[in-house]
Design a protein that fits this description.
35% helix; binds D-xylitol-5-phosphate; 9 helices; 18% strand; eight-stranded parallel sheet; alpha/beta; single chain; 222 residues; binds zinc ion; globular
């Protein structure tokens, strides 16, 4: 069970210090938005370059942008260990996954709430993680959408049936109230933004989320 805090709801004037507040995090989730693929604008290459120098933690760069084919490899070159691109935006997902691998990064594909699992089944063997969005991407602090849970179940079934080593990540509205449902469905990696950074003790929340996920008796694959 991996907990990856999203810094979208952290203080953007002091991101390095904010990351230092979650030493228990398994990775840091960085939401890159371009105001075209989603109706919000956040950060890009120069900020991620600085974040790379500020932390040794695994970085997962979630690209909510048009033309990930062009930009995703740049983040891998900067030293991000994982780059997540959207299936709704990419032109050549297999070529892009291979380009990320060639640059030493994990390749992750994200699905918006209305996008079916069938969009990625043909090339599951090429990727390292599927990110199932449990909100429409663009903003932190939105309510978790239960309607995506059948997709997580389907993905978990396929991954287990084919004995693949692929992480299933849930992104959006993950909290102490919703994480058990995600685990039950088969997710093993959890982005949490507002749940973590809107508390007084973000690291305690990371540990609490992991404890709930690990102990709800319904681990990934069931
Ligand atoms: C939404 C982003 C998420 C978001 C999660 O567009 O991709 O990563 O930051 O934030 P919470 O946990 O507040 O939904
Ligand atoms: Zn995200």
């Amino acid at each position: 069970m991996r907990i990856t805090p999203s810094i979208l709801n952290a203080d953007f004037a002091r991101l390095g210090a904010e990351i230092a507040r979650v030493p228990s995090a398994d990775a840091i989730h960085v939401d890159v938005m371009d105001n075209h693929f989603v109706p919000n604008l956040t950060m890009g290459v120069p900020v991620v370059e600085s974040l790379r120098k500020a932390t040794a933690k695994m970085l997962d760069i979630h690209l909510m942008i048009e033309d990930p084919d062009r930009w995703a490899p740049v983040y891998a070159e900067l030293g991000a260990e994982s780059v997540t691109f959207h299936i709704e935006a990419v032109t050549a997902p297999v070529r892009l996954a291979r380009a990320l691998h060639a640059k030493g990064a994990r390749a992750s594909v994200a699905l918006n709430p209305g996008t079916p699992v069938e969009m990625v089944t043909a090339f599951l063997g090429e990727i390292d993680m599927v990110t199932v969005m449990s909100v429409e991407p663009g903003f932190g602090g939105q309510s978790f959408m239960d309607l995506v849970l059948p997709k997580v179940r389907e993905l978990r079934r396929l991954i287990n049936a084919e004995n693949l080593d692929i992480w299933v990540q849930m992104d959006g509205g993950v909290s102490v109230e919703t994480i058990e449902r995600c685990v039950e469905a088969g997710a093993d990696t959890f982005v949490a933004g507002s749940a973590v950074f809107k508390t007084d003790d973000p690291d305690q929340m990371v540990r609490q989320l992991r404890t709930i996920a690990a102990s709800c008796g319904c681990g990934a694959g069931k």
